Amino acid sequence: MPPPLLLLLLLLAASPAPARAGDPYAYYDWEVSYVSAQPLGVKQKVIGINGQFPGPPLNVTTNWNVVVNVRNALDEPLLLTWNGVQQRKTAWQDGVLGTNCAIPAGWNWTYTFQVKDQVGSFFYFPSTPLHRAAGGYGGITINNRDVIPIPFGFPDGDITLFIGDWYNRGHKELRGALDGGTLLGAPDGVLINGLGPYQYNTSLVPPGIVYERINVEPGKNYRFRVHNVGVSTSLNFRIQNHNLLLVETEGSYTSQQNYTNLDIHVGQSYSFLVTMDQNASTDYYVVASARFVDAAVVDKLTGVAILHYSNSLGPASGPLPDPPNDQYDTAFSINQARSIRWNVTASGARPNPQGSFHYGDITVTDVYLLQSRPPELIDGKLRSTLNEISYIAPSTPLVLAQLFNVPGVYKLDFPNHPMNRLPKVDTSIINGTYKGFMEIIFQNNATTVQSYHLDGYAFFVVGMDYGIWTENSRGTYNKWDGVARSTIQVLKLLFADFQVNHHSIVVCSINLL
After folding, report:
1. Residue in 463, 254, 482 with CA at minimum distance from that of residue 359
2. What count of other Cβ atoms lies within 10 Å of the Cβ of residue 145?
3. Are the C-beta atoms of residues 461 and 498 closer than 8 Å to each other?
């Protein structure tokens, strides 16, 4: 299964916006290096930060300035990106190959950005080719300022969980397979916080696997921030005998509703409130299991952690909590995704109702229909495409080429609809309208779930449906409380539409990566 297809839309800007003098600074000093680990019982090199896997958290508050000095102690170039954090008026700190030169081995680079008017749950990860398959990720929490209330009771504790598929092969071997025209194949397992599954079944999980244990107090209410940091696998998240009250996703407070389980797709982040309201006769399973994969590999693609009450009477036992009835049931997943709505009465990072943005009343200036197809061999390498183009990063970052008028680095000719031609590799980018509002439709004609992420921005998810998108589909758009986020899933043979309002382009119904 190939990695999710990423779409990179860049805001070209000359310089970062100046920070207000009174905004605090948070300083971090990181060394990124290989560390030894064996999450699934196989010893391998993973990417750690300051010796930690997963990496240390970034915990800041709205409007703070973040300064992260990164020393690259790997043996190849590296970039870190801040998944879901909006880069207001700048693309210089994004940490992707379109905006930054990679940090050479043995060198350091200092990222400086402001989390202006933002709150919520995010994560960082290495954006350079397939480094994320080796780790290098960690959490980002942006807290409300004291003067801005949160739209729920203050939790008794805050817990971050990283769920994701995992390969026992190293990232270099995986990268070589793709470059050689070979699919990656099924992952070897699913990790929770960098650890393998609890031995819930002796025939499926070998002895000696170290697992995650989450310690809680009875009667308390905890905020769980859950991030899918994997490479290609959608995961269903659930906690045995506990409801998940969804309150936030990727910086947007949501209408509050309970779920017994939720599909979390690659690159997505969610916050749940979970009340410890059980009798603690045993510990409880925390499960992240694969969705939309071959039935033969479902059992091994199940991550299991333990929720341990301080007054627990014994270990967890018995079967895991049930996943959705049908492994391939797209109807369940799409209806669940449609149910996630913006909380339009809550204050965001600023003291105004979020619904006052009225995104549904803004005139769209640009429309792009982006169609994906199954990966194809192009010049001997297996590549994914949008509108028959597979993007290749130039040696000169796009923003530098734009700033210094370097000719021939990129083309502003990305087509706004499929061209029905042979696929090709090109540095072709979308020419957005400055201060415009863009509608983007993702049509998934591939054979797997696709995740799309808008780097440095957020978008409003306004529609998602089966089959082929037509202009009549606009009649079904949610123009009032579609959630604003940065990553959206498009199931196979479905489409999604989103709108984005930013200072360069606006996108409808989907998040852009």
Report:
1. 482
2. 14
3. yes
